[in-house]
Amino acid sequence: MKSPYSLLLVLILTGCASHKIIIDKEGVDMSKYEQDLAACREYAEEVSAGEAVGKGAVGGAVIGGAVGAILGGRRGAETLAGVGIVTGAARGGAGAEQEKNQVVKNCLRGRSYKVLN
Questions:
Q1: How much is the pTM?
Q2: Among 75, 76, 102, 105, who pairs with 68 as Cys (CB 3.0-4.6 Å)?
Q3: Quick check: is 88 in a domain?
Q4: Is residue 109 a part of any domain in this protein?
Q5: Distance CA 72, CA 109 (A)
């Protein structure tokens, strides 16, 4: 069970990395942009990452446990439920980070910035 937990750590750290947002800087007051970016990131914090991680973990445990029970009985169910928890939580966390990034981009677009990525 060591490798799934290592995988979770890698995925969580990767998901938490802030995505660089690229804008067309022509004619942009960069100090104003930095203020707007900070405000947009505050809005993005309203996305509930903890809830997404929890739902992913529960869903992963259920699916992993069911598959494990079919393939390997009780021991298989326990093992695959654990793997399901790890992978489900990681996917939930990554999805929440992606949603936060999208909120920031939408907010910047709403403030008339041309977001390029």
A1: 0.52
A2: 76
A3: yes
A4: yes
A5: 51
pLDDT digits (tens, 9 = 90+) for 6-58: 555 555 555 555 579 999 999 999 999 999 999 999 988 887 655 555 555 65
Contacts 24+ apart (CB under 8 A), 4-13: 4/82, 4/83, 4/86, 4/87, 5/86, 7/86, 7/87, 7/90, 8/86, 8/87, 8/89, 8/90, 11/90, 11/91, 11/93, 11/94, 12/89, 12/90, 12/93
How many separate domains does the chain show?
Answer: 1
Instruction: Report if residue 14 sits inside a domain.
Output: no
Is 104 among the domain residues? yes
